[in-house]
Every structure is written in structure tokens, then in C-alpha cells.
Amino acid sequence: MTSLAAAHHADLLCDAVSRLGSESAFEVLARARALEAAGRHIVHLEIGEPDFDTPEHIKRAGIEAIEQNYSHYTPSAGIPELRDAIAEYAARLRGIAPFKRENVVVGPGGKPIIWNTLSALLDPGDEMVAADPGYPAYASCASYLGAILVPVALRESSEWQLDLDELASRVTNRTKVVVINSPQNPTGGVLTRENLSVVAELAQKWGFIVISDEIYCRNLYDGKFISIAELDGMRDRTIVIDGFSKAYAMTGWRLGYGIMPEGLAHTVALFNNNTFSCVATFVQRAGLAALGGPDEPVQRMTRIFQERRDAIIAGLNSIEGMSCKTPHGAFYAFPNVKAITHDDKDLARFLLEEAGVACLGGSCFGEAGGGYLRFSYANSVENITLALERMREAIPKYAR
Ligand SMILES: Cc1ncc(COP(=O)(O)O)c(C=O)c1O
Asked: What is the CATH number of domain 56-292?
């Protein structure tokens, strides 16, 4: 009998594993940490998480919940109080009639909810349309499930709106799901009402479901947030993904949710039941405190992100060979570096190894991200300034 240890890796794994993608930010972070362990100083602009501490009242609620023995299993869709609070908050934020508890499914982050929702929707051969460049988790899950990924370009020339002609030509009656993400990772683009309206019209024409990943909806710098769920006919066609990671600086707590039609919510909760069972009970109590507590910490973090955005965009645009559109949301800058190289991953590697600046190649987010870099500006203005200085010095030495 072949022991697991002796079996050749590839012989052991199921075929679907070969189709899994990964989030490169975690790999670059590991390399950056290894360089730090060897004594190098690195400015971290690779990982997409707020550098702020979780607001005090949320931490207190988590600690008190442990002390009060909130340490048992909960229903797989989440504790009723949290589902109710999310249903109310999410509808209020988007200016729509309240959702019901039954529409809400809580998970350990938005990411597992994305996975479980796609698992509930996609059969092998179904088509899923998603933006390129885009957050890699959608494509990874769809490919694993044997679905067909249909990319649609986001255009730098239109401040990272979806190319609507391309979208219209790519959706058919085979399209099961269209995933949108606004504010967007990695571009920082925010889809306009006009752009969303066309997606909504197509959804009703072709009968597909929209997964609207709105995890950065509180990281918005200009105007009011618009969810596609607000548009006529879209409430029952939209699955909203959101969570606590980015708005409340709670990435490591692992808490997110999906809002969707009741029947689907039931099935997604069944996936929860079959995988992680439920989210840590005291973490759900902390989430309740986040939604019920003061909103000021969220607004303060957004203001600080905006100052950092202004610093990094001005800096990137002053480096020879780089040009960067102003992002309107999230906390990413996505400069075009094609005048330096089209091999963005190699340039990102050079910047890490030679300049001690950790960032990601744009092609980590899809083919259309080739020739761009992604910087997460969830770091102090001081560190951003240092990174810009280092890059200004290093880039002329990059062998094109
Ligand atoms: C677009 C997008 N969606 C979802 C997530 C998932 O976040 P979490 O699982 O921490 O809620 C991320 C995290 O980087 C993201 O960028």
C-alpha cells in the first residue's frame, strides 16, 4: 500500500486541485517576511488589509463575549441577532427596504461565502463572467467547480469601468453568474450608476444572477455608494457579499456575510454546515458590537486612507515610466508601468529584492492586469513616502 507520505504529490491529488488559483499577496508577504528575517527593511504595500487596530469597543465586545462563555456552536447561517443587525444595516447603507434575517448568511470572511455561494450555483460547463483584472478568488472557485470563466475587461481609459460592449457580447443564455466588485480590487475603480444599469438590464434580459462583491463599500472617497441591488428589478437577482475585514479593520477575526434570496441562503448555509459549521461565537458577538456601535472609527479610517491615496497617487505619477489613475475606493493603486516593462511580476520581484518595496504584479489579477502593479496603501504616509523614494531611485536601474 502506498503511504500518503511516499505517494507522489500529483498522483495523490484530485484533478480539480490543478485548477485552483491563489492570492499572490500571501505568497509575496511570505517572501517579504523571509527577507525581513534576514535583516532587510521592507515597506509592505502588498497585502490588502487595513493596518489599523480593530476599534476598541469591538475588541471589548469580543473579550467580554469570551468571558461570558459565548464559546459554543451556533446555527450555520449565524446567530439570529447578528443576521438581523446585518439585514437592517445593509439595507440602510444601500437605501433600500430592509432585508430579512433569512436573507443573510454569515461566514468566516466574505471569501468563504463567495466559495460557498459559487458552489451552490455553478454546474460544470456553466459560464461565469467576471472582470479582468479582478480578485482571483472568483476564478479559482469557478475553475475548481468545472465552470467556464468568461473575462470582461475593465478599461483604464474609462477609470476602470466595465467595457460594456464587450460585456454585452460575452453574456448569453449559458451565463449563470456575473460577478462585479465595486469599489474594486485591484484597480480601486468604482462602477458608475450608468455602468451598473447596463449590467442590470443585461441580467434581466438574459436571466443571470449578479454577485456583487461590496466588501470595500465603506472604503469610498467620492460620492455615495451605489449597490446594483438598488436598481429596478435587481433586489432578487443580486447576491451581495460584504464583511467586517475592510470596514472595521477586522481581517484576522474572520467575519463576513452574503445577502441573497431566502432559498439560496438556505443552501449556502448548508455548505457552511458541511464545511466550517459556524463562525466562532464570540467573533459574531464582536460583529454585533461593530454594527451597533459608533460609526466614527470607520469614517476616520476612510479619511486617513484618502490622505494616503493622495500621497501615493501623486508620488507614483511623478516616477518616470509610471502613470496612475486616481482610485475612488478600496485602498489600492494600480499604476500602468508599460513604459518600463510589460513583465509586471518581474518588476514587482525587482522592487522587493532590490528596493525593499513589496507590491504585486498586476497580472496576478488576470491577463488584462499585465503591465500594471498593485500597491495597497494601507500603510502610513511616512512608509508610503519611503517606498516612493526607494522606487524612484531603483527603477532607472531596472534592466528593461
Ligand atoms: C474583492 C474582495 N472580496 C472579498 C475579500 C475577502 O475578504 P474577507 O474574506 O477577509 O472578508 C477580499 C479580500 O481581500 C477582496 O479583496
From this structure: 3.40.640.10
